[in-house]
Amino acid sequence: MEWQKTADAVVIGGGMMGTCTAYHLAKLGMKNVVLVEKKTVASGATGRCGAAFRAQWGSRLNIEMGKRCIDKFEHMQEETGMDIGLYQNGYLMIGYTEKEVEIFRESVALQNSMGVPSRMIDHDEARAICPGINVDDALGFSYYERDGQADPFLCNIAHQEAAKRLGVKFQKFTEVTGLKVAGGRIKGVVTSRGEIDAPVVVSAAGAWNRHIGDMAGIDFPVVGERHEALITEAVDFDVCPTMLMSFVGDYYIQQRPNGTIIAGCGPNAYTKADHDPEVMGNSWGFLERTAQVLLKVLPRTRNIGITHQWSGMYDLTPDLQPCIGETDEIKGLWLNVSGCRGFMFGAVAGELVAQMIIRGSSDLDISDFHWRRYAQGKKFKDLMVV
Ligand SMILES: Cc1cc2nc3c(=O)[nH]c(=O)nc-3n(C[C@H](O)[C@H](O)[C@H](O)COP(=O)(O)OP(=O)(O)OC[C@H]3O[C@@H](n4cnc5c(N)ncnc54)[C@H](O)[C@@H]3O)c2cc1C
User: Is residue 151 lining ligand 1, measured as CB closer than 6 Å?
Assistant: First the structure.
């Protein structure tokens, strides 16, 4: 790829958040957009994620983002011209404590008031939705059938190809090593292959965003946290026909359209959180704990072979919520980080950031996602988080 020394905007990071931002900048008419990626598209957390999306959140802004993200996934093939492996098999939230079930109940009421027809269901309906599930010790459930999953590689690559058709240049295997700043304005990026001058730079580097902020002396409130996942061999499709998720139970389980089952649990269960985004690797502890969860929640998974185990970096923020906006310190420098849901929020967040950059405002007010909330002593509250 020919090297361009100038651009109207540089996007750092070729995951879902960055690729969708670049795509939407070009779609809104920006002519000269360059995306810089130190490895390949989907090589970060996006290509290692659980592939799920949902509108079952617990705050107005996240529910609105979730609603919009479902619309995006439902129209992604039409929008990008590529099959994205969409599969809307619903999300079954499983509550094990009175407190958790109360959170589900309040969240469902809020979701319903915003046009998301999710519902609380009982044990019998949970068993009807997912035959073979063992939920004797659960206390309550919420369910929404339009929640679902899609293939993260296909979604990411679909946006890359659509962005390329609109003229976006992808500079891969190119690492941003510095930011050019003068007079309180961003002037461009320094990379392992040369410099690019640009009046707008969007940092969409997932768990690596902190390093980008450090280059300009700005504290981007993001750390990486290593999470593992596994996938089984393909089995009868009705073993887990819906996505299962529990916050207190600390697990998610879902069956892909090809019959394989993806499962994961939080790092506390298997290893001390690892915050170095370069450290991947797998642990026996994770395998043991997740196998126990699978056997307990889905007894039919006994004797199913596990074919692959991997890890990826959550883009962790202090309140586990997105941090999106232009920096107060350096005009033209933007942060677009999802707070651990960049696969599902990527297309919506990318569009909103592009609108703000090009039009000065977005059609959804996401100012509550600006990380200046931390300096003001505030946190964004949504209890429907992993
Ligand atoms: C096991 C697991 C399960 C998950 N499950 C889900 C799920 O079901 N649904 C969901 O929505 N989310 C899920 N997530 C979270 C989700 O994967 C991330 O929030 C999302 O992928 C972040 O997208 P991103 O584009 O911000 O970052 P990434 O996909 O990590 O992309 C960032 C990119 O920036 C590049 N980069 C970094 N530094 C530089 C630099 N200096 N120069 C150039 N490029 C750079 C990296 O190489 C990388 O490709 C999961 C994550 C994990 C690990």
Answer: no
Q: Is the CB–ligand 1 distance for residue 263 below 6 Å? A: no
- For residue range 108-150, list pLDDT tens digits in order: 999 999 999 999 999 999 999 999 899 999 999 999 999 999 9
One DSSP character per residue, 241-252 reads -SEEEETTTTEE
Rounded distance between C-alpha atoms, residue 30 and residue 313, angstroms: 31
Both tokens of 293, joined, read 């969860």
Tokens of 101: 């079930």
Q: Which residues contact 360 (CB under 8 A, 6 or more apart)?
A: none
Between β-strands 91-95 and 140-144, what pairing exists: parallel, antiparallel or unpaired? antiparallel
- pLDDT over 70, % of the chain: 97
The pTM score is 0.97
Does residue 17 have its Cβ closer than 6 Å to ligand 1?
yes
- Kindly give the distance from the C-alpha atom of residue 46 to the centroid of ligand 1, in angstroms, as a whole number: 4
Query: Does pLDDT of 369 surpass 60?
Result: yes
Is the pLDDT confidence value at 274 over 90? Answer: no
User: What are the chain's domains?
Assistant: 9-47+153-222+319-375 (3.50.50.60), 91-144+224-314 (3.30.9.10)
Q: What is the mean pLDDT of the chain?
A: 95
Residue whose CA is at the smallest distance from ligand 1 atom 5: 50
